[in-house]
Amino acid sequence: MPALEMTDVRKTYRSGDTEVMALDRASLTLGDDEILALVGPSGSGKTTLLSIAGGLLTPSDGSVVVGGEEISSLDAKALTRFRRDKVGFVFQSVNLVPFLTARENLLVVAEMGRRDAKESRQRADTLLDELDLGDRGGNLPNQLSGGERQRVAIGRALMNEPALVLIDEPTSALDTKLGEQVMELITNEVKSRSTAAIIVTHDTRMTHYADRSVEISDGVLAA
Ligand SMILES: Nc1ncnc2c1ncn2[C@@H]1O[C@H](COP(=O)(O)OP(=O)(O)O)[C@@H](O)[C@H]1O
Ligand SMILES: [Mg+2]
Q1: pLDDT at res. 138
Q2: Is the distance from CB of 210 to CB of 199 less than 8 angstroms?
Q3: Which residues are paired to 70 by β-bridges?
Q4: CA nearest 190: which of 129, 120, 127, 136?
Q5: Residue 206 — very low, low, confident or very high, per pLDDT cuts 50/70/90?
Q6: What is the pLDDT of residues 50-83, one digit of tens each?
């Protein structure tokens, strides 16, 4: 079963009197352990596509099937559950909870998913180790570097064993070397768990970490 099947998805935003067509009949199929790089310039619709795939935004038209479930018709409550159980997000602006330590930032999502507490602690520690944050678990976000915060966000996205991981420009704030390290970490983590992922980037140097790349411009996916 594909991790994601988007068919003829449109998204328009109203902005004053004008309508912006952010996605125009986008169709995309993602295999259940495939890593896709979505590449396009600023304003091309990348974040909109990710948000629709993850159930954060409702499409204006079209169908979005994640893990066999049509999500475009789910109500708000079902969507919240869907996002919590099925999707891991890593956003461009790393939204860690500022008053929780790195480790607590991972554990809080496990709690929301009502996971077993002991297993969750083990899982958090394993992830922190794998992400080379084993000795940073007790640090608050403002006691971490940008690259470390980015890695905590990756760990948090993987905490609930999502079927689909959505990552928005993970390397935009990092220099090239750090960006490559983060990409390698992400792809290793995702591959070792046979999870599907979409990684948005405008940096074509990063696309070789993915199994496949698709270009988007002006809301249109390249065939
Ligand atoms: N909430 C919004 N309201 C109005 N227009 C928006 C909104 N979000 C995005 N857009 C517009 O939709 C287009 C695609 O945006 P976005 O998906 O954020 O692109 P990208 O992530 O590739 O930079 C852009 O023209 C942007 O200005
Ligand atoms: Mg964006």
Answers
A1: 97
A2: yes
A3: 65
A4: 127
A5: confident
A6: 999 999 999 999 999 999 999 988 999 999 999 9
Answer yes or no: is the C-beta of 187 below 6 A from any ligand 1 atom. Answer: no
- pLDDT value of position 154: 92
- Burial (CB < 10 A; 0-12, 13-18, 19+), residue 90, is buried
Which ligand 1 atom lies nearest to the CA of residue 40? 22
* 165 bridge partner residues: 88, 197
Residue 6 Cα, ligand 2 centroid: separation in angstroms? 19
Place of tokens 């979505």: 38
Give the type of residue at 4: L
pLDDT tens across 93-103, in order? 778 999 999 99
The CATH class of the 4-96+154-221 domain is: alpha beta
Residue 185: what pLDDT?
Answer: 86
Q: Is the CB of 83 under 6 A from ligand 1?
A: no
Strands 61-66 and 87-90: unpaired
Q: Tell which residue, 97, 121, 186, 110, has the closest CA to residue 147.
A: 186
Which chain residues have CB less than 5 Å from ligand 2, an ion? Answer: 46-47
Name the closest-CA residue to atom 18, ligand 1: 47
CA distances from 28 to 49, 56, 68, 105 (A): 10, 18, 14, 32
From the CA of 194, how far away is ligand 1's center (Å)?
31
Whether ligand 1 lies within 6 angstroms of the CB of 46 is answered as yes
